[in-house]
Amino acid sequence: MEAKANVCIIGLGTIGFPTALHISKYHKVTGYDIDPKKVKAASDYFFATTEWSEIPESSVYVVCVNTWWRNGKADMSAVELVCQKIAETTTNHPLVSIESTVAVGECRRIYEDIFKKQINMANCPHRLWELGRLSPEDMKNYGVKQIRVLGAIDEESAKRAEEFYQSIQVPLKLVSPIETSEMSKIVENSYRHVEIAFAEEVALICEKRGLNFSAIREACNTLKRDKEGWQVQIMEVRDGIGGTCLPKDIEYLNSLGNPTELLKGAIETDKRYRRHLQ
Asked: N or C terminus of the chain with fewer C-beta within 10 Å?
C-alpha cells in the first residue's frame, strides 16, 4: 500500500486510541468517536473529530467500537452503524478492517448487506490488554504490536489487509474463511473465562474445607512438562470476572452451542463466586 495512507480509526476508547496512536507512526490518521471527551484527549496526538463530515476519504477504515451482549443476544449495533456511515460516504473501494469482537458471521453479513460487496473486508481482532494494567515493558508484548489473527472476505481483501498490517509492523496469523478469525477471538476469551472460573470453583471448595487456596495453587503450578509443551497454570482469583470482554464473549460462544454445559457452568460459577464475595 502507499507509504502514507489516510487511515480512519473509528472508536477511540480502550482499544481504538492505542490502535490509532500506533498507526499514526506509519500513516496519516484520523480518529472518530461520538464522545467529545475521547476526541479531545486524542486530539493532542492526531486529528480527531465527532463529526463524520470532517473525516477525509480514507483508503483504510479500522473499526474499534464496542459490541455487547444484551437481552440474551449479541448486539452489533455500533459496528453496523459505523459501517453504514462508511458505505454512504466512501467512493474509493476502501479496506474496512473490523477489530471489534463480533459474532460469528457478522463480517460477511455486513459485507453483503451494508457494503453490497463494494469494499474489501477484513477481520483482525485485537489482543490488547487493558492499558491500566500494563507496564511500558508489557506494552511491547501485549500492546497493539503483537501477533494477530487475520481473516478476510476474499483473496483481494486478504492481500490488502496483509499489506496494511505489515506496513504497521503487526505480525499476522492468516486464516480462512473470515469466520475463523471471528470465532478465534471469542474462543480465546471464553477459554480464559473458563480458566478463571475453574480457579474460583477451587477457591470456594478450599474455603469450605478450611484449606489455603493460594498454597494449593502454588503447589499445583509447579507441574510443568516443557518437553511435551504443557503445564498446570491455575489462575489467581480476585473479585470475579469483570470487564466488558470475557463475560460478553463467552455468551457469544455459548449461544452457538447445542447446548454448551461447560460454558454455562463457567458463567454460573463466576456469578456464584461474586455473590459469595458480597
From this structure: C
As a whole number of angstroms, the distance between CA 151 and CA 181 comes to 5
What digits encode the pLDDT tens for the residues 41-95? 999 999 999 999 999 999 999 999 999 999 999 999 999 999 999 999 999 999 9
Sign of torsion, CA 106 112 115 118? Answer: positive
Q: For the chain, how many helices (H) and strands (E)? A: 10, 12
Question: Are 232 and 165 part of one and the same domain?
Answer: no
Q: What are phi and psi for residue 148, nearest 5 degrees?
A: -130, 155
Q: Which of 176, 194, 216 is the last residue of a domain?
A: 176
Last residue of a domain, one of 137, 155, 176: 176
Handedness of CA 86, 172, 247, 153 (dihedral sign): positive
What distance separates the 2 farthest-apart alpha carbons in the chain? 67
Using only C-alpha atoms, what is the Rg of the chain?
20
